[in-house]
Amino acid sequence: MGIAKGYESIAGYKDIKAMLKRTAKMDKGFHAYIFNGEPGCGKGTLAYLFAMALLCKERTGEPCMECSSCKKALSGNQPDIIRVKHEKPDSLGVDEIRKQLVDDIYIKPFESEYKIYIVEDASLMTPQAQNAILKTLEEPPVYGIIILLTDNMDVLLPTIVSRCNTITFNPLSDDVVSEYLINEFHISEYYAKIYAAFAMGKIGVARKIAESPEFHEKLQEGIHFIKNSQGMSSTQRIDIAKKLAANKKEIYDYLEIFTIWFRDVLYYKATMDAEEIILKEERSAIKKRASVSSYEGLQKIIDAIYTARMRLKANVNPELVMELLLMTISEN
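Above: the chain's sequence. Below: its structure in token form.
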């Protein structure tokens, strides 16, 4: 998580971090919070740092990293910070909520002033689980603090939302993310901007990319597919579709690489300005593509990439999805 650097391990969100610091320092927090933001935005790391700060012996508003409580938290062994997790990939059930939170919260803290529960993927709580936790939110013990992490607050019961202090993590600007990557990982400005565009304002995603040597290879491979997409035969499309569909988790990465490429092509076609495109090292190929693809054709391709994402989420055969996409790319 990079938590050893404290709040500075998370780029952006200056106002949110300042508010969390004041709350922890003044010891005037709420009993329940919703941290709402897309996956990879950093909300989980900030929630954990906030919990550390509330239990820190120094009471400076942020974790000192040196006291006994902070050291235990850094190693994942602070008994009064409890991560509520789910076993099933797509739901957080009532039994899990009762066992890990509802029944447990009335046992007093082991060694701290507070007992803090961080509910991961709270948007996956079943209606029964939400109703179970609602009773706890209505009458929490004085030492209990609950932090719900969610990427879709709309699925939570209004009665839950009304009893929580909601903090929303909006996507960061590409400039903030790229500057963070340059300073933190010492990568070139060129790749920092590509990674920032890929991450779409989510610092956790950007960090994961920067730490993954495999992503650089994937980026080059994705660009190679696109550069050679015009005029490819049906046999070539099938072969590439098979390769792209081999790993369903990675297929979305390729779709985002394709999106960045064609947005650059569309931008250059509209402005004739090669200095503002993201993939600057591909100027020549981008200019060439812009010269042969119409505005309508480029928009069809961008729409087709979006459609491919939706089909994959709907569990349509990945190989078929990618073959149809490559056909659209080749024909436009």
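Residues 248-271 form the longest helix (24 residues).
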